[in-house]
Hints:
Blueprint: H1 2-36, E1 52-58, H2 65-72, E2 81-87, H3 93-99, E3 103-107, H4 115-126, E4 133-136, E5 142-143, H5 147-158, E6 162-169, H6 176-200, E7 210-213, H7 214-219, H8 229-239, E8 245-255, H9 260-291, H10 295-304, H11 309-329, H12 334-359, H13 371-386
Parallel strand pairs: 1-2, 1-4, 2-3, 6-8
Antiparallel strand pairs: 4-7, 5-8, 6-7
Amino acid sequence: MLSEILGVLSQVSLILAIALSIPAFALIVLTLAALYSRAPKKLPPATKDMRLAIIIPAHNESFFVVPTIKNLLPQLGEMDQLVVVSDNSTDDTAAQALAAGATVIERHNLEKRGKGYALDFAINYLRSSPPDVVMVVDADCVVEGEGVRAIAALSLKMARPVQMLNLMLANTDASVRTRIMAFAFLLKNLVRPRGVDLIGQVSHLMGTGMAFPWAIINSANLATGHITEDMKLGIDLTLAGTPPLFTSASKVLSYFPEAGEVARGQKSRWEHGHLQTMREELPKLLASWISKPTKPKFALALDLVIPPTALYIAIILACLLFFGALAYFLPVFLNTFLFLLVVLAALACAILLSWWRFGRTTIPLRDLAMIPGYLLWKLPIYFAYIARKRIGWIRTRRD
C-alpha cells in the first residue's frame, strides 16, 4: 500500500517538474532563435513631410531630462515636436525642460499616478494637431545615432508600433551585482526579443524607444495604473491585430543606478510588474491563441511564460534540494530529481550561449559565478510580491 502511494506521489512530482521545465525550454528556444536571427534590416528614410511627436514622461527628473532633450532635439525636423509631461513633479523638472527647448505640459493628480496616465495626458494634448507618429522616450535615456526619425518612418510604413533596442548599461567602475543586472537586462531586452522577432515578427513593448502610428496610439487604452503598462499595451495591441515590431537597428540607452537600495527598488517595480503581467495577461493571451492561432500571439506567450530569471533559478535550485534529499531516502523520487537536473542544465546552457554570443563585453565569465549572491540579494523583492507590496511609478534616485 505504501509503495503504491509513493509511486503515485512520484508520478505527480514528475508531472510538476515537467510543468516547471516549460520556462527553461522556452528560454532555450528563444536563445537558439536569437543566435540564428540575422542582422537588422536597414531602416527606411524618413520623408520630410512626416510629423513626429516625442513624448517624455517625467516625474522629478529635472537633472536627467535636460541631457535627454539635448540628445533628441537635433534629430527632429522642423514640423516635429518634443513634449515633456511633468507628472506630479515637486522639483523644477518643468522649468529645466522648458529652458532646454521642449514643449512642457504639467499634470497634477495624486490619485491617478503612473506613467500610463502621463502618456494619456500627452495624447489628449496632441489631439488638437495630431502628428503622424508618436514616440515615447524615458527622461533618463538617449537614442544612439540618428535613429529617431528612422524608427518613426518604419512605424509609419508598416502601420504598426515599433520597439527599438532598449538597453541599460553598467558604468565602467560598476559592482559585480550591477554587471549581473546589466547582463540580465541584456537577456530580457536583446536575446529574447530577437528570438521572439524571428518566431513571430512581434515584440513586447519596453516602455522607452517606442514608436506608434497616430491612429493606433490615439485609440489605445493608456490611462491605467498598471506597473508595466508597456507590456500590457503591447499584448493588447497584439490581440487587436497590430502587433509591435522589434528592431535593433537603433538603440535607446540608459545606466543602472549603483546605490543598492535604489537598484533594489527599481528591480522591485520591474519584476512585480512582470509577475503581475504574467498572472493577468498570459491566460488571456493563451486563450486567444487557442481560439485563433497566430504566430505573434504564440511568440509573445512563449516569452511571457518565462518568469524573472533570478526567481526561476531560485525555484529550480530549491526544488532540486528538496527532491535530492527526498530521493536519498526514497529512491522512487530519483527520476524527478534527475529531470530537474536536466532543466537546470538547459537553463545554464541558455545563459551561457547568450553570454558567449551577446554578453562577453557586458560581463566577464568569472562574474557569472556570483549569481548565487545576486539571487540572495533579490529574495526580498519576491517576498514583497508574495506579501502584495505594490511598487508604483516613482523616480529612480541616482548618484
